[in-house]
Amino acid sequence: MNKTEMAKKLAGKTDLSQAKAAEVIECIFSSEPGHGI
Predict the structure, then answer these.
(1) How far is CA 34 from the centre of its chain?
(2) Number of domains in the chain
(3) What's the whole-model pTM score?
């Protein structure tokens, strides 16, 4: 599963838009130093 697929699934299970869900996924899994978890 890639980030786009994960964002679609998250949007489908919540009241978030797909764009907002993608932001959430990017915040969690970002590989940039100092970003993500």
Answers:
(1) 17
(2) 1
(3) 0.78
